[in-house]
């Protein structure tokens, strides 16, 4: 057996209604003012409002940036970082699928260390702890809540670049399956297959370890058992819970074992 190492220095809350733990998490971390990063789609279906109400009812100030677009650009990152600086928040809440997570990590880096976001492209370029991020995924999913990378599009060069630094790992993840129970079937299917491929590619990776294999095996079991039922009926609580946990375990697995050719092919495409 090859040598291996791992750590999961994150607090993960899982459960139907776990979103309601958010105010206490914020208070325990001394956050009086948070900056919520999300998108207009989630605003439209009321998810943003649901989260901001919970924050405000907990007596905590909240400023929002909701203009995240799919394949988010440097312009989006700069806009959000400027607003973060102006509003005086001390914590970032990343609400959504992969894109709000990507932007939140980039804003967390820029707000702490300045410069241009392209300065941090590549492996381990982030020099220290970034602004604390609380990740609230609304898909199952990208696994971004437990991975240490951010993908941003440089619109001038028409090029996607990755920032891969352990420091970008969100401090907390709140996994509330209720948030994925209203997803359209097409999103549930696409995100669910993505999560399954994360687990398979991590399992087959040459960088896998007994630890990443354990997470990948459980992820495949949960996703395999629940994917079809979840697509058929997103309101099926057990299927939603299985998908949310499975997607998270797949994320933990590939954060250590890395991915394979399916994801590699997606970059040039
Ligand atoms: Zn993926």
Question: What would the principal axes of the Cα set say about the shape?
Answer: globular
Bound molecules: zinc ion
CATH class of the largest domain: Alpha Beta
How big is the Rg? Answer: 17 Å
Largest sheet: 6 strands, parallel
The total of beta strands comes to 9
Mean pLDDT: 95
Helix content: 40-55%
The CATH topology assignment of the largest domain is Rossmann fold
Domain module tally = 2
Structural class: alpha/beta
Give the DSSP E fraction (strand runs of 2 or more residues). 15-25%
The number of helical elements comes to 9
Largest sheet strand order: 1-9-6-4-2-3
**Low-confidence parts lasting 5 or more residues at pLDDT below 50?**
none
Order of helices and strands: EHEHHEHEHEEEEEHHHH
Task: Supply the CATH architecture of the largest domain.
Answer: 3-Layer(aba) Sandwich
């Amino acid at each position: 057996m090859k040598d291996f190492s791992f750590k999961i220095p994150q607090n993960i809350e899982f459960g139907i209604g776990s979103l309601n733990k958010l105010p206490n998490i914020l208070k325990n971390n001394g956050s009086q003012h948070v900056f919520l990063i999300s998108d207009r789609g989630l605003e439209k279906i009321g998810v943003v409002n649901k989260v901001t109400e919970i924050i405000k009812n907990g007596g905590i100030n909240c400023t929002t940036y909701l203009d995240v677009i799919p394949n988010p650009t440097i312009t989006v990152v700069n806009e959000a970082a400027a607003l973060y600086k102006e509003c005086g928040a001390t914590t970032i809440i990343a609400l959504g699928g992969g894109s709000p997570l990507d932007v939140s990590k980039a804003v967390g880096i820029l707000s702490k260390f300045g410069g241009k976001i392209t300065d941090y492209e590549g492996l381990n370029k982030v020099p220290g702890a970034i602004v604390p991020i609380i990740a609230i995924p609304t898909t199952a999913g990208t696994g971004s809540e437990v991975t240490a990378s951010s993908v941003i599009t440089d619109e001038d060069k028409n090029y996607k670049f990755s920032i891969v630094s352990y420091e970008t790992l969100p401090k907390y993840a709140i996994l509330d399956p209720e948030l994925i129970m209203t997803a359209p079937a097409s999103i549930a299917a696409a995100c669910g297959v993505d999560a399954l491929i994360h687990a398979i590619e991590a399992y087959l990776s040459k960088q896998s370890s007994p630890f990443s294999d354990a997470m990948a095996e459980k992820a495949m079991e949960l996703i395999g058992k629940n994917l079809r039922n979840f697509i058929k009926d997103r309101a099926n609580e057990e299927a939603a819970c299985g998908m949310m946990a499975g997607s998270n375990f797949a994320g933990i697995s590939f954060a250590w074992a890395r991915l394979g050719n399916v994801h590699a092919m997606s970059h040039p495409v």
